[in-house]
Amino acid sequence: MQALRLPARAKSLDAFRTFAADALRQSGLEPSALGRVELVLEELLTNIFRHAYGGGPGDVELACSADGGAFCLKLTDWGPPFNPLTQPAPDTSAPLDSRPIGGLGIHLVRHASDSLDYRREGDRNVVTVCVRPPRPAGEKPSKEEGPR
Amino acid sequence: MIQIQETTTAGIPTLALAGRMDAPSAPDLEHRLAEALAAGRTCLILDFSPLEFIASAGLRVLLSFAKKAGKAGCALALCGLRPEVSEVFRVTGFTTIFRIHGSADEAARALQASRV
User: Fold this and answer.
1) Distance from CA of B74 to the nearest CA of A (A)
2) Is B60 helix (H, G, I), strand (E, B) or coil?
3) Which ipTM value was assigned to this complex?
4) What pLDDT, in 10s, does the model give residues B16-72?
5) Nearest in space to A8 (alpha carbons), one of A63, A39, A51
6) What HEC string does chain A produce?
7) Residue A43 forms contact with B (CB below 8 Å)
């Protein structure tokens, strides 16, 4: 498990992204998962930057691990309890005029990830998200997996 | 980082969007799109073929721009979405908001046909 802890602000995004990309490369998992890893990382981080500390200072920690063929990101902040997964799903069929601006980040994370979990651990918010890379060509899907 | 290059396709102003449409680049994109509207464009093609990545910050700018363009009477067409970008459009329902074509030429033909 590798971890990086930085201030929860927009300038930290690049360093977190590089850190996750390096960890994915070192994990030996299929690199084509990178796009989805970058997407879930950006959405969860920008959410924390915006909401975790109400504009005040604070840190966020990213830990990456390869777990049973999936690449997992664990994001920790020390803000007040906040579960981003309780956000209602957006109406993705609404026409242009009635579409609200925003509210799509967590929806994208749900779609791009294979598991997503929130826990309050003491004084921390911990979100864990896992992305399972596509199977290499020719490998048969296992029985548990349904069609996507 | 996003690089935006303006060209024309069959006489229609076309913005080629290269790089990443993410939180860091969103303000830049918003500014450039606002400029295109302020220049009084009546139609515009957004060429996504050089775009590698899009996140919700980019979608937010696009949606806000589409609303303003609609009010300003500027017809929009998008083209050349790569599979990962296309997937983000699909799961957010953006495929139903925008007119999306394979190439800039097809987008230009569709815009010209809709003007008649």
Assistant:
1) 14
2) helix
3) 0.91
4) 999 999 999 999 999 999 999 898 888 999 999 999 999 999 999 999 999 999 999
5) A51
6) CEEEEEECCHHHHHHHHHHHHHHHHHHCCCHHHHHHHHHHHHHHHHHHHHHCCCCCCCEEEEEEEEECCEEEEEEEECCCCCCHHHCCCCCCCCCHHHCCCCCCHHHHHHHHCCEEEEEEECCEEEEEEEECCCCCCCCCCCCCCCCC
7) yes
Residue A130, pLDDT above cutoff 90: yes
Averaged over A56-62, what is the pLDDT?
96
What count of residues does chain A have?
148
Q: Cβ of A58 under 8 Å from any chain B Cβ?
A: no
Quick one: residue A78, left, alpha or beta (phi over 0 = left, psi -120 to 50 = alpha)?
alpha
CB contact under 8 A, A38 and B96: no
Assess A46–B contact: CB distance below 8 Å, yes or no.
yes
- Using the Cβ of A90 and the Cβ atoms of chain B, whether some distance falls under 8 Å is answered with yes
B102: confidence class by pLDDT, cuts 50, 70, 90:
very high
Tens-place pLDDT, residues A94-112: 999 999 988 899 999 999 9
- Rounded to two decimals, the pTM is 0.90
Closest in B23, B60, B92 to A92, CB measured = B92
Q: Cβ distance B66 to B36 under 8 Å?
A: no
Q: Do B66 and A92 touch (CB under 8 A)?
A: no
CB atoms closer than 10 angstroms to residue A14: 10
Give me the amino acid identity at A105: G
